[in-house]
Amino acid sequence: MILKILMLIVFFGVLIGIGLYCRKNATDVNGFVLGGRNVGPWLTAFAYGTSYFSAVIFVGYAGQFGWKYGIASTWIGLGNAFIGSLLAWVILGRRTRIQTQHLDSATMPDYFGKRFNSNGLKVAASVITFGFLIPYTASLYNGLSRLFGMAFEIDYTICIVIMAILTGIYVIAGGYMATAINDFIQGCVMLIGIVAVILAVLKSNGGFLEALNGLANVTDETVSSQPGVFASFFGPDPLNLLGVIILTSLGTWGLPQMVQKFYAIKSEHDIKKGTVISTFFALVVAGGCYFLGGFGRLYDVDVASVGFDAIVPEMLSRLSPFMIGLVVILVLSASMSTLSSLVIASSSTMTIDFLKDNIIKNMDEKKQVLCIRFLIVVFIAISVVLAIIQYKSSVNFIAQMMGISWGALAGSFLAPFLYGLYWKGATKVACFASFIFGSVVMILNVIFRANFPILLQSPINCGAFTMLAGFVIVPIVSLITKKPDQAIVDDAFICYEETTVVKQTTSLGE
Question: What is d(CA 127, CA 210) in angstroms, rounded to the nearest whole number?
Answer without folding.
Answer: 51
